[in-house]
Amino acid sequence: MECNVGIVEQKARVLAGLALIGIGAYYDSKPLAAAGLIPILTGMLRWCPLNAAIGYNGCEPEQRRHDKN
User: Fold this and answer.
1) Contact (Cβ atoms closer than 8 angstroms) between residue 46 and residue 10
2) Boundaries of domain holding 49
3) Where does the record place the Inner membrane protein YgaP-like transmembrane domain (predicted)?
4) Which sign does the torsion angle of CA 63, 56, 48, 1 carry?
5) Is 30 among the domain residues?
6) What is the mean pLDDT of the chain?
7) Per the structure, how many domains does the chain have?
8) What is the pLDDT of residue 21?
């Protein structure tokens, strides 16, 4: 999998995922908390299937080169 999530987007995804988990826990909503795992996972892997489907790549060329090695 080639990187298609940039550094800033990665941090935003992880924070958004943590926020969803927190909101889900506060309101006792397991589906909302479970949905928070998706942005965390895509942020940590730095690959998003939705980005790949629409052809978006947030990684800079230098980042892509380093991720392949």
Assistant:
1) yes
2) 7-68
3) 1-61
4) negative
5) yes
6) 91
7) 1
8) 98
Neighbours of 1 (CB within 10 A): 10
Q: Say if 1 falls within a structural domain.
A: no
Residue 21 CA to residue 6 CA, distance in Å, equals: 22
| Residue 61: predicted pLDDT | 74
Residue 43 has pLDDT above 60, yes or no: yes
Q: Say if residue 67's pLDDT is above 90.
A: no
Rounded-to-5 percentages of helix, strand, coil across the chain: 70, 0, 30
Q: What is the CA radius of gyration of the chain?
A: 14
- Would residue 51 count as lying in a domain? yes
For residues 20 and 50, give the distance between their C-alpha atoms in angstroms, rounded to a whole number: 19
Count of C-beta atoms within a 10 Å radius of residue 10? 20
